[in-house]
Amino acid sequence: MGKTTVVEAAAARLREQGVEVVVLEHGDDEDRAQSAPGAVCLRSGGLALHRALVRAKAEGSFDGRPLQRVPLVPLLRRDLRAWAAAAGYAFPERDLERAFFLSGGHPFVFSAWLDACRFTRAPDALEARVREACAPLFARIDRELAHPELARLWDWIAEAKTASVEQMRRAVAATKPALDRLAIAGPVSRTLGAKAEISASCELYLRQRAR
User: Fold this and answer.
1) The pLDDT of residue 73 is above 90
2) pTM of the model
3) 69: closest CA among 194, 174, 185, 201?
4) Residues 111 and 189 in one domain
5) What mean pLDDT comes out for the span 125-152?
6) ∠ at Cα 51 (46, 53), nearest 5°?
7) Does residue 67 sit within a domain?
8) Beta partners for 21?
9) N or C: which end of the chain has fewer CB within 10 A?
10) Does one domain contain both 54 and 154?
C-alpha cells in the first residue's frame, strides 16, 4: 500500500527535526525483526512482520524501545486528485471518480492506474492494464486474508461493504487489533472517531475475489 513512499516521507520529516532514523524494508513474508541502531527505526513489512513484533514485545526479546504499529489506509479523493495533478494529469471528475471507485484509494492500485493512463484512456483497456499490474498485489492480499484470524472478518465486511466499527464488533466479535491487521492486509478503509466506519472499498479487488 505504498509502504516505501510512506515510510521514506515519515523518515524525511523526522530527519528535518534532527532525529536519527533508520529505515528497514522487510519482505511481505519476512518474520524476523532484527535490532537496529538510532533513536527511531521505521520498518515496512506485512502481517508476518507485524505478528513477529507483537511476539517479540510480549516475550521481552526485542530491543526495549517503545513499539508503535501504523496500518496504512486508503487515500481520499482529494489525495488522488493532488497526486494526479502532481503527475501532470488533469482528469475530468467522472474519470477521477471511476479511478477512486475501482482503486478504493489504494495507493498501489491508483499508481498503476496513473501508469496505465500513459498508454490508453479507453475504460476497458485501462482497467485491464491496471488489473494485470495489480495481480501480484492481489495474490498477496489473498494470502493474507486466508489467515484464520482475518478470513471471517473479511467475509463479513466484503458482504456488508460498509458498516460501523461497533456493528462489526458486535456481529463477528472483531477486536481493535484484528481490525488493524485487516486494514494492513487488504483493501479495507477505516475511519476513526466516535462514528468510526469500516468498508471494503477496492472494486477491482472485490471483482477479482468474486471470480
Assistant:
1) no
2) 0.69
3) 185
4) yes
5) 90
6) 100
7) no
8) 40
9) C
10) no
What is the tens place of the pLDDT at every residue in 104-113? 888 889 989 9
Residue 135: the pLDDT is 92
The span from the CA of 88 to the CA of 100, in Å, is 18
In this structure, are residues 96 and 181 in contact, taking their beta carbons and an 8 Å threshold?
A: no
The boundaries of the domain holding residue 142 are 72-211
Identify whether 38 is part of a domain.
yes
CA distances from 195 to 105, 156, 157, 163, 192 (A): 20, 19, 17, 10, 7
65 part of a folded domain: no
Cα–Cα distance measured from residue 161 to residue 91, given in angstroms and rounded to the nearest whole number: 27
Residue 187 to residue 177: CA distance in whole angstroms:
17
Assigned domain for 122 exists: yes
Q: Which three cell numbers stand for residue 206?
A: 472485490
pLDDT of residue 96: 92
pLDDT at 51 over 80: no
**129 backbone dihedrals φ, ψ, rounded to 5°:** -65, -45
Residue 31 DSSP label: -
C-alpha cell at 31: 518474520
